[in-house]
Automatic annotation (TrEMBL):
Listed name of the protein: Coatomer beta subunit
PANTHER family per the UniProt record, alphabetical: ARMADILLO-TYPE FOLD PROTEIN-RELATED (PTHR35834), ATAXIN-10 DOMAIN-CONTAINING PROTEIN (PTHR35834:SF2)
SUPFAM superfamilies with a match to the protein in the record: ARM repeat
Polar residues bias: start-end ranges: 29-40
Top-rank lineage group of the source organism: Eukaryota
Region annotation (Disordered) ranges: 19-40
Length: 413
């Protein structure tokens, strides 16, 4: 390693640090230097770092603990090697104690190296986000996307207080929002920034949910109007629940989401419907009212009668008619669970090719089983849906089918 290399060549240094972390993990798992060649290599790599600690670690106050741990590792390894030259109970006890100590120190070294990696990664990402508009080239764009992806993977591993402190001090969240709201930034950088925001919400809701609700993230996602942004929006609704739906409704964004149901891109229509279902599950009265006023039921009825629609009642009837008497008797003999599993499997396959099948009833079920409405509100909305279905249907037969699905509700879907 070279002096000051972390500032000069962060990608290379990160690779070296990852290798050292793996070495500490190998040593923690198999702390005996003579157990195999790989463990000897692990000890050698870490002791080489200890040898160079005066030039690499001493100038960074954050690395003083790591320097001390490496010195302790060297002491334990030397004690273990000396004990191997002797026999007897005392040497056996010394070897056991030294082996256990090496494993414990290796674990602590791995933690400290991970903290070092986190600092380097956060610094590199912050610098790249700040300088993203300077000398913008495809290579720089690839580098930033890669840094964002690595950071997303890191925070997705679970909560870590030291990492959270780094994120807050570096103000990465503000930079991510700035990128997301910048329409001149490359689309894939904006989308990857959105994925990182979702990962930060899962990392610690208590800290980052407030930032999302108070900032421009939601409006920016809806304005992007891409399949990626809709996926992120659905993920945020599932994570933040009713407060986020309240924010969407208060900002007047519900009509724009409903309009995506008419988008030419099929995947966008499917994701818009998924978003509608999430809002139906977590939304309060105001949000549901806003969707119905935008003609949601009429639009869903139109999607249901399209080639990608259909009804699950018809699928269930076809399944029943296709079964022979022997099959029915056999299913009864082994229990109703077999029948239910077979039907669920058939419905999943049908929905994969017909994503808007029974979409009116599926929305009604979300209201029925959801968290956002009181019981009396659920009953009132169900009556509204029934009225709107009658008005939106093209025939009495269509109305009868959709009404039956809505009335059966969660017992069918």
């Amino acid at each position: 390693m070279e002096e000051n290399s972390p500032k000069q060549e962060p990608p290379r240094v990160l690779k070296v640090l990852e290798a050292l972390k793996q070495a500490s993990h190998d040593l923690q798992t198999h702390p005996s230097p003579d157990s195999d060649e790989s463990n000897s290599s692990a000890i050698k790599a870490l002791l080489e770092l200890e040898t160079e600690s005066d030039t690499i670690l001493s100038k960074d106050p954050n690395l003083s603990t790591l320097s001390q741990l490496l010195s302790r590792l060297k002491t334990h390894v030397e004690a273990l090697q000396k004990s191997r030259a002797h026999h007897g109970l005392a040497s056996f006890v010394t070897r056991r104690v030294s082996t256990h100590s090496i494993s414990r120190v290796a674990e602590s070294i791995g933690t400290e190296i991970q903290a070092w990696i986190d600092r380097e990664r956060v610094e590199s990402l912050t610098r790249a986000l700040k300088e993203r508009k300077k000398a913008a080239t495809p290579d720089k764009e690839d580098e930033l996307v890669n840094l964002l992806t690595q950071f997303e993977d890191r925070v997705s591993q679970g909560f870590n207080r030291e990492l959270q402190d780094l994120v807050l001090k570096s103000k990465i969240f503000s930079f991510l929002e700035s990128v997301l709201c910048d329409s001149s930034s490359p689309k894939r950088i904006r989308e990857q920034s959105a994925f990182v925001i979702v990962a930060l919400i899962r990392f610690n809701k208590d800290v980052f949910v407030g930032m999302v609700l108070m900032g421009p993230t939601i409006k920016a996602l809806i304005t992007m109007s891409s399949t990626c942004s809709m996926k992120v929006l659905c993920g945020l609704i599932r994570s933040i629940k009713s407060p986020l739906v309240d924010e969407i409704e208060s900002n007047g964004e519900i009509p724009r989401i409903i309009n995506f149901l008419h988008c030419q891109d099929l995947q966008m229509r499917v994701l818009a419907f998924e978003c509608v279902l999430e809002i139906g599950y977590f939304g309060r009265k105001e949000a549901i009212d806003a969707m119905l006023e935008e003609g949601l039921i009429e639009k869903l009825a139109e999607l249901q009668r399209s080639e990608l629609g259909g009804d699950l009642i018809g699928l269930e009837r076809c399944n029943d008619e296709s079964e022979s008497d022997d099959e029915k008797r056999r299913e009864v003999s082994v229990g109703r669970l077999v029948l239910e599993r077979r039907r669920e499997s058939g419905e999943r396959r049908f929905l994969e090719s017909h994503p808007f099948a029974s979409c009116v009833a599926r929305f009604a079920v979300q209201l029925e089983v959801g968290e956002g409405l009181r019981q009396r509100e659920k009953r009132a909305f169900k009556q509204q849906i029934l009225v709107r279905v009658r008005l939106a249907s093209m025939s009495d037969a269509e109305a009868a089918t959709i009404l039956a699905e809505v009335l059966w509700g969660s017992s069918m879907i």
